[in-house]
Amino acid sequence: MDAQPVMDLAAAMERFDGDQDLFLTLAEMFLERSPAALAAIQTALADQNLPMLAKEAHKLKGSAMEFCARPTVAAAAQLEESARQSAVSDMAAIGERVQAEVQRLTAALQVIIEKGFPS
Amino acid sequence: MQITERRIGQSIILDLTGELSYANRTTFKAAVERSKRAGCRHLILNMQGVRFLDSSALGTLALLAQSFPAAQGMVSLLNPQSYVKEIITLANLHQILPVYNSEQDALAGSRLPAAG
Amino acid sequence: MAEPAHRIVDDPLAGKAAKPMPVILLVDDDQITRISMAGRLKRLGYRVIEAGDGIAGLAAIRAQRPDLVILDWMMPGLDGPSVCEAIRADGELRSSQVVLMTAHDQPEQIAEGLSRGADDFLSKAASKQEVLARVQASLRSSALVREIERTRDDLDRSHRLLSAKQTELESELQSAADFVRAQLPLPGMPAPGVSMQWAYQPSLALGGDLFQVSVWGSETLGLYILDASGHGVAAALRAVALMTFLREDNLAKVVGSFDPGAIITEANHRFPLTQDGEYFTLWVGRLHLPSRTLSYAAAGHSGAFLHSLQGVSQWLSSASLPLGFDPTISFDSATAQLLPRDRLYLLSDGIYEAPSPTGELWGRDRLQATLESHRAHTLAHSIGDTMTTARQWLKGDIFPDDVALLGVEVLDGTAPAKEKS
Asked: Which domains occur in chain B, in start order?
């Protein structure tokens, strides 16, 4: 099911021109922020607050893009699109997927923060 | 202003066409200088083709008359036309520059001027 | 450890002012994406200023004048396109180089961004190479615009300097013109029994035509009109020099008499042709007031007309050479007898050589007829109206040559002048 890697580290390092310090700074910021971000999405879904949902999903998508975390980006993009299109029927399911991908991503980032970059 | 030079014996005739004015005084003076250096006893300025003359040109002609000391030769004017002739007459230029009506007369006047 | 006596600096930039790195302003409310882009730009060598929203961004542009502004599109409050519009609406800021960040390359986004003032676009997903390429291209444009603005400012400065210089020069010319005009006689009565009026209009601010009426010795009125060949400042300067020669005290000293012929003969010696062939024409008159006898002489100047109410009117001129044409000759005086209420006019050729639009000159005959037509009018009226008539001939106000018209009237015995209008 999860055939795709959670993030393309090589691509991300290419993006940051090998700047490991920058990567780690951003990773720590993401880890710090992600609980609140996920909570905001949950609240928006519960309240059916579509504009808020679109905004939060867009923001999450942007952050995930920095790490070349394609599955997370795809899920967040889909959630954003549903919110914009008011396609309420699938929203909950997509919301679940976003949650799952974010957890995978934060786990992967945690490993790098603690254990360093694979050589 | 167009200037052509003709040499006849010891005389040089400068055929002038156009306007004698402040604007082209340098061209005129240069042509006169050339003729003087070529050595001539009588410099004849053919005014037949001159259709305009201003006060600056009058002054230039007067200077020219003064720059030909009697021992070296003379300068004269040939055939000034209507308007130009009037200006020359009003300025009494003929008192210091002989004015001839025909080329023959002008060339015949090529003797060194006697006193008076 | 001893310091070396001197160090040879092998640095290609030594002694040259280092060109400062371009400054980029990055405006993005999302901290992660902002820090990411800022970090990437700094790694490429640029100096980066960050702002967290549109308002702060605008303030930073005004304060820092960055070489490039990169704006995120979606921001709370003032979004990217709105900041663009604000930049373009501001006279000081509107030539800034602005790049809008887009999430994807959506065609409609680009169209909207362009219409709201963006210069270029950069995707947040852009690779390092693309970021570098876009930023470099934008900085090149920015540098070009700066260059143009600098050139324009230099031009403005030069233009202002030139205008100031021009104003200064015109003011000096006007001062000179005022000085020359101040040499002219005050209208009115230069001597008992004589009234005088004049009109004077140089073709440029200054001209070479000047005249004077003043008392020479006792019971004698000296009058003259001179014309320096050429135009403008040079002619005016020469005219003033001749005028200085013609002052009463100088004539007494140098000529030894007020005889017009003697005066002109001396002037003929002292004022030769210049090396450019410039010269003067001159008319000098001396009026013995008790007898009203006028003696006069001329050097090439034929602008003297005696309008006699009771006797015969005549032009007081004879064939003569201008000053300097033949320094060896001498000039003789002629005489004329003035009767009461006779008018003597001195005038420059600029007035009778006034051309109509078809090029026909007004001529001395028409001038004479005009002067004579004012037989019954005051001298002032005669002069004023003659100028008006000349302008009508000209069909304009600007004469191509300097115009001077002076009138002197010998009044009736000792009775006050009968003024008819």
From this structure: 2-108 (3.30.750.24)
The Cα–Cα gap between C151 and B58 comes to 49
**Is A39 inside any structural domain?**
yes
ipTM: 0.93
For C334, phi and psi rounded to 5 degrees? -115, 170
Alpha-carbon distance A15 to nearest alpha carbon in chain C (angstroms): 5
The number of angstroms, rounded, from the C-alpha of C277 to the middle of its chain's C-alpha atoms is 27
Residue of B nearest to C322 (CA): B91
What one-letter code names the amino acid at C382? S
- Provide the shortest C-alpha distance from residue C278 to chain B (in Å): 6
Question: How many angstroms away from the CA of C8 is the closest CA of chain A?
Answer: 35
In a domain, A100, yes or no: yes
* Closest CB from C230, C300, C321 relative to B56: C230
Q: What is the pLDDT of residues C75-122, one digit of tens each?
A: 999 999 999 999 999 999 999 999 999 876 577 788 899 999 999 999
Which of C325, C326, C360 has the most B C-beta neighbours within 10 Å, making it the best mutation to test the interface with B? C325
> Are B96 and C326 an interchain contact pair (Cβ–Cβ within 8 Å)?
yes
Q: Are C196 and C187 within 8 A, CB to CB? A: yes
Q: State pLDDT tens for residues B22-61.
A: 888 889 999 998 888 887 888 999 999 999 998 889 999 9
- Check: CB of residue C206 under 8 Å from CB of residue C246: no
Task: Judge contact between C54 and C78, C-beta under 8 A.
Answer: yes
Domain C23-154 indexed as CATH 3.40.50.2300: yes
Interface contact flag, C319 B92, Cβ < 8 Å:
yes
Angle between helices A50-66 and A20-47 (to 10 degrees): 160
Give the CATH number, domain containing residue A40. 1.20.120.160
Q: Give chain A's domain count.
A: 1
Rounded distance between C-alpha atoms, residue C220 and residue C54, angstroms: 90
Residue C361 β-bridge partners: C355
Res. A3 pLDDT band, cuts 50 70 90: low
Long-range contact pairs involving C324-328 (C-beta distance under 8 Å, separation at least 24): C324/B62, C324/C268, C324/C271, C324/C272, C324/C273, C324/C279, C324/C280, C325/B62, C325/B65, C325/B91, C325/B92, C325/B93, C325/B95, C325/B96, C325/C273, C325/C279, C325/C300, C326/B95, C326/B96, C326/C268, C327/C268, C327/C269, C327/C272
State the residue range of the domain holding A98.
19-113
Strand segments, DSSP code E, in C91-218 are 98-102, 120-123, 188-191, 194-201, 209-215
Q: What is the pLDDT of residue B36?
A: 83
> What CA–CA distance (Å, rounded) separates C360 from C372?
22
